[in-house]
Amino acid sequence: LSSRFLVIKLGGSAITVKGKPLTPRLPIIKKVAEDLVKLYQEGFKFIVVHGGGSYGHPIASKYSLHKGFFHVGQLRGFSETELAMRDINHILASSFYDAGLPVVPMHPSCMVVACKGELTDFYVRPVKLALGLGLIPLLHGDVTMDVKWGFSVISGDQLASFLAISLKADKLIFGMDVKGLFDRDPRSHPEAKLLRRVNVKELNLIDLRVSEGIYDVTGGMRAKLKEALKVASSGIPVYLGSILEKGMVIKMAKGIPGDYTVILP
Ligand code: IP8
């Protein structure tokens, strides 16, 4: 694979309206598609993974799918979640296709097996071979089979981190609806500072000192950080930044200075 090979995760809260079930943020999706076209034309190779936002999460939570299988009533909830994830995946895929990208939707429920909510087996060959051809694999956080729990929910962050490490990406980009990591909670501390560059060691230290750790304004930051640290520790830089403005994906892909966080190995 090329030396400019990226794994890009698009956060569910950036590409959907969080409080409104099944509502995409089409203007944001379009901006991202335009950024991706530019990168593709410049020879970048990338895999895109997206989150569930107001598609996957409300349904998965209604049926407690993240707790594994304990009641037959959950089975229709499993179906409903899978169908909703394919809907938002199709919205992104259509937008990328219309922008001119050779996108190929791939569904992790068919490629992944988990164990107690942790991704253990991932058949990545279709992703790797598609990339080699010049296609753009588009995956999503998904419900998957789980050898211990029956089924579980695997986040887009887990999939993105697994792909970045196993396919040796040059960088992993987390596109979010916030600017990056702050030294304290920006909601309650207006003087909170955006951390532009941190390394794994510094991040672990800060994490120890601030009991609540480092957070942005969304809740899923802890799990995201865990994945980010795993990837950065393996030698791959991780970029975290907002994708609400056009050009941010390009900035992070090229390492052009801006308002975002880079976690260095
Ligand atoms: O938003 C979860 O993906 P995430 C997908 O990346 C489902 O955590 C099915 C809720």
Topology summary:
Blueprint: E1 5-10, H1 12-15, H2 26-41, E2 45-50, H3 53-62, H4 74-98, E3 103-105, E4 112-115, E5 118-122, H5 125-133, E6 136-140, E7 142-146, E8 150-154, H6 156-166, E9 171-176, E10 197-199, H7 200-209, H8 221-233, E11 238-242, H9 248-254, E12 261-264
Parallel strand pairs: 1-2, 1-9, 2-6, 3-6, 4-7, 9-11, 10-12
Antiparallel strand pairs: 4-5, 7-8, 11-12
Bound molecules: Isopentenyl phosphate.
Isopentenyl phosphate binds next to helix 3, helix 4, strand 7 and helix 6.
Structure description:
- The protein contains 9 helices and 12 strands.
- The chain is α/β, with parallel strands linked by helices and 265 residues long.
- The protein has an 8-stranded mixed sheet with strand order 3-6-2-1-9-11-12-10, with helices on both faces.
- Isopentenyl phosphate binds next to helix 3, helix 4, strand 7 and helix 6.
Mean pLDDT: 92
- Measured by DSSP, the beta-strand proportion falls in 15-25%
Unreliable stretches = 208-219
**Given the C-alpha coordinates, what overall shape results?**
globular
What is bound: which ligands? Isopentenyl phosphate
CA-CA gap between termini: 21 Å
Total E-strand runs: 12
Number of helical stretches of at least 4 residues:
9
Q: Give the helix level as a range of percent.
A: 25-40%
* Biggest pleated sheet: 8 strands, mixed
Strand order of the largest sheet: 3-6-2-1-9-11-12-10
Structural class: alpha/beta
Radius of gyration: 18 Å
Helix-strand topology string? EHHEHHEEEHEEEHEEHHEHE
